[in-house]
Amino acid sequence: MSGLEGPSTQEVTEGLGIREFDTFIRGDFKKEIRKAYKSPEIFCESDLQSLAWSLLRDFVRQSGDGKMRVLNRPYFKDLKLYPDLVVFRKNKPWVVVELKEKKQMGTSHIEKEKKKILHARDRVRDIHAKYPKRGYLIWVSRYATEQAMKTPKGDGAKFYFEVPVALDEWMSDDEIGEWYEAKFKPFARFVLPEKTKRAKKPA
C-alpha cells in the first residue's frame, strides 16, 4: 500500500513490537485516515471501520509477523464483548480498537468509548494477565471541543490512547461549511437524480 512502511528487517525477525505498532498508528495510519476523511471517503462509522481494518491488516502483513491477524468486530463469546477491531497475536488479543464518527466530538462521547475499551481490557486480563497491551480510540469529526482534544487518560494512563482527527484543527468554520455542502452532503444524503426524459423525435 502506498505511503505505508512496515518495520525494519530487525523488527520483522523479532516480531512486530508494540512501539512499532504505536508509531504506525499515530503516524502513517492517522495521515491516511485524515486524508480519507477530507477527500471525503468517510461518511459514517462503517466507512471508518472498513478503512481502519484495511490499513491495520496491510501493516501487519507488511511486518512479516505471521503470528498476527486483524479481525473486524470479533465476538468474545465468554466475555460478551464486541470490540470494533482487534489485533491478535496468536490466539491472544494484543490490541483493542474502538472507532467513532460524529459531527461534533465532545468529552461525553469520548468517555463512553474509553469505558468500553477499559472494560474490555479488564475482562480479557481476568484470563490473560498480560493482554491486551494497548487500547486505542480512533475518532473523526468535523468539530471537536478543546476539552475533547485533551481528554485526560486517568485509569488507562499507560494503556489507553486516542487518535483524533477533527477538521477544525486545520480548517475554518467557513471552509468546513463549504466542504460539507460541496463534498460531504451530496453523498451523505444522496438523492437519486430523476431519469432524464428523451426528447420526442419530430414526426
What would you say this structure looks like, in words?
With 203 residues, the protein is α/β, with parallel strands linked by helices. It has one domain (12-188). The protein has helices at residues 9-14, 18-26, 28-38, 45-63, 107-125, 146-149, 173-188; strands at residues 68-72, 85-89, 92-105, 134-144, 160-166. The protein has a five-stranded mixed sheet with strand order 1-2-3-4-5, sandwiched between helices. Helix 2 (18-26) runs parallel beside helix 3 and helix 3 packs antiparallel against helix 4 (45-63). It starts with 8 loop residues before the first helix and ends in a 15-residue tail after the last helix. Residues 1-13 have low confidence and may be disordered.
What would you call the structural class?
A: alpha/beta
In quaternary terms, these chains amount to single chain
* Residue runs with pLDDT of under 50 for 5 or more positions: 1-13
The ordered string of helix (H) and strand (E) elements is HHHHEEEHEHEH
Q: Strand count, sense and closure of the main sheet?
A: 5 strands, mixed
Order the strands across the largest sheet as they lie in space.
Answer: 1-2-3-4-5
Q: What does the overall shape look like?
A: globular
Please give the share of residues in helix.
40-55%
| Number of separate domains | 1
Strand content: 15-25%
The averaged pLDDT comes out at 87
Number of helices: 7
Rg is 20 Å
- Rounded to the nearest angstrom, the distance between the terminal CA atoms is 58 Å
Number of beta strands: 5
Any descriptors?
203 residues, alpha/beta, five-stranded mixed β-sheet, 5 strands, 41% helix, 21% strand, globular, disordered N terminus
